[in-house]
């Protein structure tokens, strides 16, 4: 029975070289990734040279993420084999930016999943062959602007480029007397819902005693993605599902929304060996389901989202800057004054990460190590965002964070010499 080692990496928002640095702790981290049989990450940036077809979209995933196409060589040097390209930045530069990214990845042989020229392409598994066996990846996003989702092709019309969606709806449970008051107020100001509906301000309200905001998965998207898992299970030795998902439970950013937990568990039940959550830019807990790992969020891994060389006028205006006279440095100076990566008690959480190092023997997970990583929040803009192994007290702090987050799922992590070991 064959063994394979697979590492998962968080969000890659990269815009600068990685291969020029030589610190021992950095090179040791790179060695860990390269020596694994497969390494999977979320590529949360677009690769293009501002070509004529790469128009900045009116809406973006926050910033307009972009990197020089030569960055793909940095990914190869880092040891990344497979990437998800489905995320809220996939259409930051419209279809041209998306399709150019796909072509640049193909040129260097980095496998990708999650986007394509139509929904069938975006949803299909990609495969990476290793001497130990074949690894399949399906990737989707639940966080995206609606225009970014791919569309099905018909016999008489081509499909729409975009990402593989996992949609959901949000509804609010509210007590009867409060719902009555909302109906009365909205009626008085002329916001009448359709007969039989309790929908106000774009939100659906349901009567109930346990008040709160809840989510429900889109059944069509759920079944389409589970079908892709079933396909990959028959075509590969190991199957990974990657979901880009910012959504939280109520106001708790440490816990994913209900539909994410539901889908992650369903993906394991259908045959996935591993579920990788990306997107919220902070760590979330680890769950072990039927001996398979669910990582609800791996946080940032490369966080160079503040050194992009050109930005559209929309970004300047969004920050009340002159779109004609300003420079990218002006944008990022203004953004840092309010951005949650720098402000608030939880800013630190955006600058830490983990590398889950998994070993499977056949279908069975026999080892799961958690390697803590820091991203250098204290460094100047030109240097921060590059991962490096955390050591000593800082390593223990990061491990304690993921240990606490995982306890809610009944997962126990033993901390030893700066590394976490998940009890299986």
Keywords:
424 residues; alpha/beta; Purple Acid Phosphatase, chain A, domain 2; ten-stranded mixed sheet; globular
* Beta strand %: 25-35%
- Tally of individual domains: 2
In angstroms, what separates the terminal alpha carbons? 19 Å
| Number of distinct beta strands | 24
Rg calc: 22 Å
Q: What's the CATH first level of the largest domain?
A: Alpha Beta
- Indicate the overall shape: globular
What kind of sheet is the major sheet? 10 strands, mixed
**CATH-level-2 architecture of the largest domain:** 4-Layer Sandwich
CATH homology-level superfamily of the largest domain: Metallo-dependent phosphatases
Mean pLDDT equals 94
**Low-confidence region ranges:** none
Structural class: alpha/beta
Helix content: 25-40%
Q: Do you know the CATH topology of the largest domain?
A: Purple Acid Phosphatase, chain A, domain 2
Number of helices: 10
Structure description:
27% of the residues lie in helices and 29% in strands. It is α/β, with parallel strands linked by helices and 424 residues long. The protein folds into two domains: 334 residues, Metallo-dependent phosphatases (Purple Acid Phosphatase, chain A, domain 2, 4-Layer Sandwich); 46 residues, no CATH class. The strands form five sheets. Strands 1, 2, 3, 4, 19, 20, 21, 22, 23 and 24 form a ten-stranded mixed sheet that branches. Strand 3, helix 3 and strand 4 form a beta-alpha-beta unit. Helix 6 runs parallel beside helix 7. The longest helix is centred in the middle third of the chain and has 17 residues.
